[in-house]
Amino acid sequence: MTDRHRPPGVLRRAATAIAVGALALTGATALPATEARADTTAKGDVIANLWEWNWDSVAAECTNVLGPAGYGAVQVAPPAESLKQPNYYWWDAYQPYSYNLNSRFGSAAEFASMVTACHTAGVKVYTDAVINHTAAQTGTGYNGTTLTNKYDTPDWNPGDYHQSDDCNDSDLIIDDWSNLSEVQNCELLGLPDLETEEDNVRSGIAAFLNKQLALGVDGFRVDAAKHIPAADLAAIEAKLTSTTSGAAPYVFQEIYPGSTPQPSDYYGTGDVLDFTYASKLKSAFQGNVSDLQSLSSSGILPAANSVSFVTNHDTERNGLHLSYKDGDTYKLANLFQLAYKWSTPTVYAGWEWSQSDQAPPNSAGFVTDTDCSGSWYCLDRDTAVVGMVAWHNAAGSAAVSNWQTKSSSVIGFGRSGAGFFALNNGSSSATYTFTTGMADGTYKNVVDGGASTVTVSGGSASITVPAKSAVAFYDSSYTCTVGCDDTGSGSGGGSTSTVSATFNEYASTSYGTNVYVVGSIAALGGWDTSKAVALSSTGYPIWSGEVSVPINTSFTYKYIKKDASGNVTWESNADRAVSTGTSAVSLNNSWNVANADATDVTFNEYATTDWGTNVFVVGSIPSLGSWNTADAIPLSSASYPTWSKLVIVPKSTAFEYKYIKKDASGNVTWESGTNRSYTTGSSSGYTSSDSWK
User: Fold this and answer.
1) Which is the catalytic residue, given 218, 223, 382, 605?
2) Per-residue model confidence as pLDDT tens digits over 240-254
3) CA triple 160-163-164, angle to 5 deg
4) φ, ψ of residue 278 in degrees (nearest 5)
């Protein structure tokens, strides 16, 4: 644990001890416990850690992204009522005020609806369980609970907490990190420490967790687990009920590294988050990725007892591990984690921050909806990451094979014929011949969404790996290019009679209305709107979806909108037409703009902003919102301070536009000066590069 729970004015000696690595704790032998594994669901075993997303946003992400992408579970924030204070720090959520489920992330009803939505999408739900302590600060919580005495809460009275005589330290603060009694019985940074050796306390904690299990929660990430004796955790878990699916809840535990207690002391009560794994990845990706060949023997935890991660909310802030601020290097480390056969992997998605204590985007402390085009960093939905989740699921338990180190920056390895992965951490592209262990044939590269392919001949392939990127393919990503028989089978295995068609449609909608694609072939519903293919709104106002369509086939299609009552609105232009070959196709369209009349303009705007403020483009044509700021196109800050987005617009058309800024409250600031103007021609690939004025 770092100083994430630190309230202003609380002694910082423990935080200083942590900073210098003085995490030497004394261990205890864990009692045997009935352990649940992070079993692979119908979707997979990858955990998406949507850290401090509100419940409505988690539900939407499960439905629109995690389920379709094949994630097995989602890890969510602590659901209990917590400290509410004027500064609204992120660590407020780790200071429980009561075990009521009305929190800064939404109401108890919204929490329950989120769990249901995720289950409907085939995604399990694990909550962050803060059960070692309660809040260090008095005041009022997010459900209105008022504390005037931090040892007297709706759930606990003063006799339920450790006192100075329990931890053999007069000031009740952890001063000596090598003293087991202090570490597990004194207060971490002034946080009241529950007396978990007492049966009534164990029962109270179990009741809190069982309330979540009754709502469908599938397991728990136990916060600050090293500050609870393993024997106490085992006793608490023995009081837990089964999940609604009838399984034992899955438990994984935060055991920050130190000389004692050892992670192995807690294997009896669940899996352990592997901080060493993340540290080894940071060292390799900031040094030589060739070092990863010896990763399994470098001191990381056993695969059967651990959960891996590249970063978490503590370590991205204290510099221990990589973070989104490391750019492509950070993403590349996540791709490696998904490719390498080891423990249960997690993908972390949080928000962009400039100060370590900074709260998530909020309104009076209540976390607002996640905006992946703005102040949130939604790695879970990145094209390469989504592709590698599918790759990870397809590779399954196949062992790592054919490891090849081409340079200190370029490596490649297979998974015993189930898939192959090559990585380039260098600053320029690299071309090498790799032994893949794959059947001969042509395969889609899942890292770029299938835009490129790799041809395997004689088990080998010449692969050009872009700088700071990867190339990955697996058995089911085989595409037939020559020699297909009537069923579409070729020499490489897998179904080959279809090709991927990605539909991207610009369409603004009202709340509750969604966009679908329907067409003349069975894959698109055969013009039956009840069988239309739903598109994802993750890049709103661009709606996207990937459909397998027949090769060497001509078909027609259109987009429709359906409201919450099922009413259908067709776009007004003529049917769109496309002819497929044997390669993947991408169809970029705009509502009511016919294919023959559409082109694209990439808007690039140089603009600096305050935290929480984002840049949009709006203009005189429907594709640019018709001057309605509510329908303005959000630009991506990926290359900040340049904000960019490709927009589908009509060909041979003159239009006007301007850039605007919107802050977290939705207030709009227009750039100064006259309207900008642009005229498209009859080709494609136009670019407008501007600066805020």
Assistant:
1) 223
2) 999 998 999 999 999
3) 170
4) -65, -35
Residue 339, φ and ψ in degrees, nearest 5:
-85, -30
Cα(339)–Cα(347) distance, rounded to whole angstroms? Answer: 13
223 carries an active-site annotation: yes
Please tell me the distance from the alpha carbon of residue 215 to that of residue 117, in angstroms, as a whole number: 12
User: Is the Cβ–Cβ distance between 502 and 546 less than 8 Å?
Assistant: yes
Cβ contact 51:348 at 8 Å: yes
| Alpha carbon distance 45, 549 (integer Å) | 28
**DSSP strand pairing (654-662 vs 81-84):** unpaired
Could you write out the three-class secondary structure of 203-262?
HHHHHHHHHHHHCCCCEEEECCHHHCCHHHHHHHHCCCCCCCCCCCCEEEECCCCCCECC
Give me the mean pLDDT over the 157-169 stretch.
93
Q: What are the DSSP E strand ranges found in 439-513? A: 441-444, 453-456, 460-465, 469-474, 478-479, 498-506
Q: Please say whether the beta carbons of 601 and 646 come within 8 A.
A: yes
| Active-site entry in 3, 187, 237, 254 | 254
User: Quick one: DSSP state of residue 64?
Assistant: I
Higher pLDDT, 62 or 34: 62
Q: What are phi and psi of 170, to 5 degrees?
A: -65, -30
Domains of the chain and CATH, by start: 3-394 (3.20.20.80), 398-479 (2.60.40.1180), 498-592 (2.60.40.10), 597-691 (2.60.40.10)
Concatenate the DSSP letters of all residues of 368-407 into one string: PPP-TTTTEE-GGG-HHHHHHHHHHHHHTTPPPEEEEE-S
Label residue 261 by pLDDT band (50, 70, 90): confident
For 306-325, b/e burial (b = at least 16 CB within 10 A) is bbbbbbbbbbbbeebbbbbe
Q: Which two tokens stand for residue 447?
A: 């890292």
pTM: 0.69
Strands 430-435 and 460-465: antiparallel
